[in-house]
Predict the structure.
Amino acid sequence: MEFVSRIMDGTISYPGPDPSETSVALPPKVRPSDKMSYLERVPVLENCTKGQLRAISRIAEVMEVPTGQILARTGERGDQFFFIIDGAARVDIAPDVHHRVGPGEFFGEMSLLDGGPRSATVVADTPLRLLVIHRRNFWKLLKEAPVLTERILVSLSQRVRRAEKAITA
């Protein structure tokens, strides 16, 4: 303990790690025009005005993930909403219930809407490019894009109907 204290107070010098050994490659910075281009490719946002898309681009982040990366896990707290720009993901609802989502589709809204845990695990089936909205901006997103709010409601209704059908089958 004394050793650590002396390093901390400077009586024993410690050069620290070599910066060349600890550098981490940062993802390339995405230009605002690129974000706008991605947003324009999301079908559910096709009726948004340029102003609405600009507002959304200010709160959206671009994320690129490799095949196999878990984006959401059943039972965990959800802090992000995702739009798929490129690639595909597998949604695991139960051990024997899966479906695939691809470009233009979204996921992660349920946990942000009701504050409950994630209801499915989502895994990248291919490399993915996503637009991500964090929890703190989710309601702002819904206010900026009322058409998205409508689409989310329709999507949730369809999911409930599929679940009911699976239970009665």
